[in-house]
Amino acid sequence: QITLKESGPTLVKPTQTLTLTCTFSGFSLSTSGVGVGWIRQPPGKALEWLALIYWDDDKRYSPSLKSRLTITKDTSKNQVVLTMTNMDPVDTATYYCAHSKFSSSWSVDYWGQGTLVTVSS
Amino acid sequence: QSALTQPASVSGSPGQSITISCTGTSSDVGSYNLVSWYQQHPGKAPKLMVYEGSKRPSGVSNRFSGSKSGNTASLTISGLQAEDEAVYYCCSYAGSSTFWVFGGGTKLTVL
């Protein structure tokens, strides 16, 4: 059974750096054809894809946020970490961790419960 | 503004069929058969309903079907049920630079 869970601060100040951790179970990120990504959703708004890291450590970022994002993995801990610099109130959103695999054409077949991050002074 | 265009809302009565459209461009929907559809109930994480345009994950009802014509993908839900009431998002691969783009979401109301 695949599960993912996000953790991190619920409140950050403008200009600060956000660090979110996704801790997962039921699969290994060293298995070929597997990826873990991040997707966010501002309150009442649409989903926005942020980043994806593959089993081979290849990474992809949203072009509009690429300069602010870093995604890394710790295979031994079953964790993926997303950092986002220079946070702004418009970054207030629920941040989801997501499992993808090649056999599902990299669609998100498992989601974390999400964590709400509020950016405010 | 989302990269893919969906109607804000659709509605239907129980037992009826509805179709939700998702319009992109020749750079995303039109170029790749990699559209997925997600269902999201209030306060919950999205759920994958269709991937690769028309494939259903294990456990998803065959009342949900996907298709594509040109730059527009569609999700059809037949035999509407009350529990289908939710927001539906489409998502398309858009190339190695842009990667994934989402639609703005469509709220389905079961009357």
Question: Could you explain the architecture of this structure?
Answer:
The complex is a heterodimer of chains A (121) and B (111). Chain A is mainly beta. Chain A has no helices and eleven strands. Chain A has strands at 3-7, 11-12, 18-25, 34-41, 48-54, 59-61, 69-74, 79-84, 93-101, 108-111, 115-119. In chain A, strands 2, 4, 5, 6, 9, 10 and 11 form a seven-stranded mixed sheet that branches. Chain A has a four-stranded antiparallel sheet with strand order 1-3-8-7, with no helix packed on it. Chain A is globular and about 40 Å long. Chain B is mainly beta. Helix content of chain B is 4%, strand content 43%. Chain B has one helix and nine strands. The longest helix of chain B has 4 residues, at 95-98. In chain B, 36% of the residues are buried. The chains are: A mainly beta (121), B mainly beta (111). The A-B interface holds A 46-49, 52, 60-63, 96, 104-109, 111-114 and B 2, 34, 36, 38, 45-48, 51-52, 57, 89, 91, 93, 96-105.
Largest interface: A-B, 20 and 24 residues
The proportion of residues forming helix of chain B, as a percent range, comes to under 10%
**Radius of gyration of chain B using CA atoms only:** 13 Å
Oligomeric state of shown chains: heterodimer
User: Helix count of chain A, per DSSP?
Assistant: 0
| Overall 3D form of chain A | globular
Note the main attributes of this structure.
heterodimer; A: 121 residues; mainly beta; 7-stranded mixed β-sheet; 4-stranded antiparallel β-sheet; 0% helix; 52% strand; B: 111 residues; 6-stranded mixed β-sheet; 3-stranded antiparallel β-sheet; 1 helix; 9 strands
